[in-house]
Amino acid sequence: MFVKDPCGIACILVTYLAVFYADYVVIKWVVLQTMLDSLWGTFNVVMFNTVIFLLMIAHIKAVLTDPGSIPLPQSRVDFSDIHSSDSGCDFVNWTICARCETYRPPRAHHCRICQRCIRRMDHHCPWINNCVGERNQKYFIQFLLYVGALSAYAVALVVISWVQECQDCIQDIPLKQARIMHCVILLLESALFGLFVAAIFIDQMQAILTDETAVEQIQQHGPFRPHKPKMALLSEVCGKEHPLLWLLPCSSVSRKMDTPLIDHHV
Ligand SMILES: [Zn+2]
Ligand SMILES: [Zn+2]
């Protein structure tokens, strides 16, 4: 499922451009200019690109993973019996989406951009051109973490390169001016993206630990849910494996379905 939203596609391109520019400045204007004489330079290039690799994997997974969309019904659904049905209490909290014309489980909400109802929808994020929902929230949070780590790493490398400037590296004035310009742009870019993802990361943690998605925080009339311990809430989003593995964008989120999918064959 790929959403055809021009704003979302532009945001993805901006993200990739920003990451590639950061890599270019770090390699060409920081490491090659000031850290050539040691293994320290090679080490930083490898580490910086490892973070970029993880960032890209998490981002691609957040973009391409279905956030938990509710399939549209094959045929028109007859809603007249929704309250009279006593065939089972599994569907007690299910609601109807008038736009999708279908039943949806509790905590599912309609996204106007995706034009679908999304399970446990948090918000629609243009930076991943996708909703943040039940099945891709883990990758979204990993993406935020890696962008934060990359920003901090870039700032650290620029600072280190200025403090430990080697004497015989560059004496050429235009070259030095170009280096200053690129380093300043990289610092600004890192500060901007770093603070931005830090703010969203705090929001996401609050939403998970209070067990309320951004959509539910606005509505403030969600059904009562039993209180759960913090680790249980985190593992609902990140998976059952060891918390250290939550940082890796490789394992897929294997969640049990809270509610069965309704059969639409009326
Ligand atoms: Zn809907
Ligand atoms: Zn959406």
UniProtKB/TrEMBL annotation:
The keyword Cell inner membrane does not apply. Signal peptide: none annotated. It catalyses: L-cysteinyl-[protein] + hexadecanoyl-CoA = S-hexadecanoyl-L-cysteinyl-[protein] + CoA. InterPro entries: Palmitoyltrfase_DHHC, PFA4/ZDH16/20/ERF2-like. The keyword Cytoplasm does not apply. It is found in: Membrane. Its EC number is 2.3.1.225. It is a multi-pass membrane protein. PANTHER family: PALMITOYLTRANSFERASE ZDHHC16. The DHHC domain is required for palmitoyltransferase activity. Belongs to the DHHC palmitoyltransferase family. This is Palmitoyltransferase. It comes from Molorchus minor.
